[in-house]
Amino acid sequence: MKQIITDIAKNMGIDIIGFTQILDYSYLSELLFERERMGFNSEFEERDINKRLDVRCVFPKCKSIIAIGVPYAQGYKKPVTSDKGLLSVVSYGEDYHKKLELLLNNLAIKIKKHINFEYVSCVDTSPLIDREICKNAGIGQYGKNSLLINDNYGSFINLGYLLTDIEIKSNKTVDTIDICKDCDICVKSCPNNAILKNGGIDSKRCISNLTQTRNYIPIEYRHNMGNQIYGCDICQIVCPKNKKNLEIKSNIDNNYLMVDLKELLKISKADFNKKYGSLSGSWRGKNIWKRNALISIGNLGLLSMFDMVKEELENPSEMIKIYASWTLMKLNRQKASEILNNNLKYENDIIKMEYIKLLEGKI
Questions:
Q1: pTM score, two decimals?
Q2: Of 217, 250, 266, 292, which has the fewest CB atoms closer than 10 Å, so is most exposed?
């Protein structure tokens, strides 16, 4: 059965495929609870750790898992711009969640011509630990940045898998191999020092997570977000394991990954969904992108946009006001201080605290 499925996948253009019968991940419980204790978890992870440790919590009939990887970003070069926001290359083209979901369902349909079975497809949306499942299926090994690195395609791979009730014999365990050894380029290159020295991620510092969070972004982390509107590619771009694939000739249009910051400040929800709704990075919505645009304007020092940013102090969103005030102080401290001082008496306690912090020089 394994060979039949592998052949079907190859004929569909799926080069990275693996299998695992490991359904119980309780061996990771200590690690997960320690991450929670240290505050390294992101808000996107399932809070009930026990739900993450057994595949049968998602699909009780599960007997084996078929995992796939789809490479992306081949030939990618990070755009350089002095007045635009940037999207991570994972947002290039149609939302990868939809593409992989369709691919997995088509794979299942073709497998059903050989055996009747039930399945659940997962693409970054279940409570399970996707990378550990795919690692056990032989897709790749962990780098220090916690991403799976495939022997042929590096870490620029989108992951998905089918939980199935098929009996597919596979290795019971997959040894964890230290593929990074003494290399710590990603650790040193991470702007907010989010990659731990011995591997692992403090998601509260990770720029990719910061561009997606709805939580308050500490002032000291904003500076290193640069002009990122969604995601971050730095730890992957510098990784030697990705060198070969990044040097491939590519049709990627870098202009596609650059975003007009003025437009983001003014765009309506309907127009945002129309223009960006098909991208994987759009799932967080217009206001999160707008917040990131404000941070980008401050970091790029776009003084010409001072008045546009000032208008956001009238925005009903508390979040937008907070980041607009920070950006104004970055652009012109003297002028912004006068504006914030004048506005203090009209604001609620949360906004007042933020203004006072900025006026005291904590930017």
A1: 0.93
A2: 266
